Request: fold
Amino acid sequence: MTLAHQFAAYTEWRSRLSANIGEFQGWLAANELSDAQTDLSLTRLLERLREDRLNVAFVAEFSRGKSELINAIFFADYGNRILPSSAGRTTMCPTELFCDPDKTPRIELLAIQTRAANGSVSEYKRYPEEWFMVPLDVESADVMQEALRHVSETIRVTPEEAGRLGFEIGERASDLYRPGPDGLVEIPRWRHALINFPHPLLKQGLVILDTPGLNAIGAEPELTLSLLPNAHAVLFILAADTGVTQSDLTIWKEHIGDGGTAKRGRVVVLNKIDGQWDELKSAAEVDAEIGRQVDSCAAILGLPERQIFPVSAQKGLVAKINGDAALLDRSRLPVLEAALSDELIPAKQDIVRDSTDCEFGEVSLRVRGLLESRLASLREQLTELIELRGKNKGVVEYMMGKVRSDKDEFEAGLQRYYAVRSVFSTLTNNLFAHLGLDALRHLTHETRSAMLEASFSTTLSDAMGGFFGRSRYALAKSAGEIGEIQNMMEAIYKKFSVEHGLKLGTPAAFSLLRYEKELDRLEGWCNTHLNTMRSLLTTDKKHLTQRFFEEVALQVRRAFERANKDAETWLRAIMAPMETQVREHQIQLRRRLESIKRIHQATDTLEERISELESIEQSLLQQIQALEGVVGRVREMLLPPAAQLRAA
Reply:
């Protein structure tokens, strides 16, 4: 199955899953089984599925054929190149290709001069007026090609201006940015490009990130700190004629391979193998030569050979456009596409399946518990009333007293529940005192002041280290508060289950481990790019401080924002079952008491009430059966493929 077909199948699976969850949400509302927390959880889950994206990044030094590979894999159906692809540098700035149906087809370009201001690309995305817009005529490949050439535009500026915008200026012929005969330096005109293009795969949620070479990657840290780490797949492109150059190895070690360790979704493409094709050599000799280059690349990058794919993107594109099956096979492009299809889509589907299963499971168990609680309470009422058949008024009075005693006992137990709510509120306040953004803002302000006032490089270094140390301490204290909340709720769940028969199960768990790992990653990047002896001694203090807060502290803040949002969701989820079950138990106790009061006042209503409760019992059993059906349809879709086959 090709990448396009596999992705289409994944999109169709995601749509059916959304439809089944939507059916479940509608069924809950129709049966009056939903509450604010349940509805919020399901709505958020559906929004995540609807906005789900598959991010694929293409990374290489210039002239490795990166844009041509994107054309060959995704855009050959247009019968021409869509992205500009020629000798030399064609992609001068990071370029995102996606489809937003709410916008017209267009290219949006952010001026390179915005680097001098205190703002990341993500922040600039909130301000459309800052972007230069070029309409995109999707009916004509030639017109699209012409419009897309904007991403290749450059401007000439003074060396001082180029340095201020983050480009490393050199004097050697090998330096990418160096003054020309006129004393000016050629740099990219644009900082970032957004291409909104209604391609079928992009419509389904594919996002392609095309990146420039090493110098531009280093000058735009948001690429290395956010966009690349969050990509579901990174294709690292090498040239078959050069193998792994020093600059290739630098990109791999610093930005992709974490020092050479393999990651799922990291693929190396050895492009331009058609340069090895030689009519004076046999096919076996050509294959052996390509094989030796694969072995060499695998050894240098520390990867298994199966993760390196030799291809000819240019010949693959030509073959697809001309319908030349033999040339396409020789280009080896189908092998790469099959690997992407077998590796990338299932990995993404696993992530979505696991996260959906976890959240949907909590909601469905909560609803099942509520119905079972209602059924148990109703059957208790039914048993009590059946036992009253033929009994005198004194027995009815005794039963009424017993139910009233149960109600009084539960209401006394509610004092513990209210005490738990009070402690829960205190622990929640303690949690957000450490995890909240106010504390982080205060830390950021203190660190900025310390860095700007620093007289020695060691003071600057200590301030950066202190920022991470205190951020990590805040997460550790928050984890302690989360543990206390978890233990307290486990105890109260168990107590109310045993004493009052509530169906509460186990409270949802929560961990900050992923955010601790994110801090480790960001500190590692800081220690290799900013907090180094060379950087401390050669970079202006004000510029270093600005870089630290624009590039590193900004990512830490985003991590804390996500942690806050996740913690708030967890806190609502952990208290919701308790609140729902307590409210439900109160209602059932009140109904039991009212029912026996009515029978006490007029014994001829006993059989009517028994009949009424038996009818309600049947309705509840039907609801539980219907719940199993609607939940089962979602559960079946969340099974791994092998389990689905066995179930079928």
